[in-house]
Amino acid sequence: MSQITRDETLTRLLSKIFSFISRRFRRELPLADLSSATVRRNSDLENRVAELEVELLVWKQAHSVALEASEREVKAHNVQIAALNRQISSMDTFNSVRQTI
Question: Three-state DSSP class for 1?
């Protein structure tokens, strides 16, 4: 079988398959039903996107609150370290004065 004949045969076969599928699809799901199904699915997807946007907003707010709390803890920790360093420094000064006496 030559290349052209084989290609023509494949083209005809594919055309018949697509034609059969198209006819069967139209019989099973009329265009109006397909349109309604598409509109319904689009509406469902729009609702899901809206829900996900709300969920994302909630997660962003929670993340922001967690970051703020972490920053407050770091500041409080730094204040405690500074106070301890001052105490150590004053103890060193006291010890050095006491040793000279």
Answer: coil
State how far the Cα of 58 lies from the Cα of 76, in Å rounded to an integer. 27
**Structural domain boundaries enclosing 16:** 3-100
Strands, E assignment, the chain: none
Residues 39 and 30: their CA atoms lie apart, in Å, by: 14
Measured distance CA(92)–CA(94) in Å, rounded: 5
Placement of tokens 């006491």 in the chain: 98
- Euclidean distance between CA atoms 7 and 19, whole angstroms: 18
pTM exceeds 0.70: no
Total structural domains in the chain?
1
Q: Model confidence over 55-80: pLDDT tens digits?
A: 999 999 999 999 999 999 999 999 99
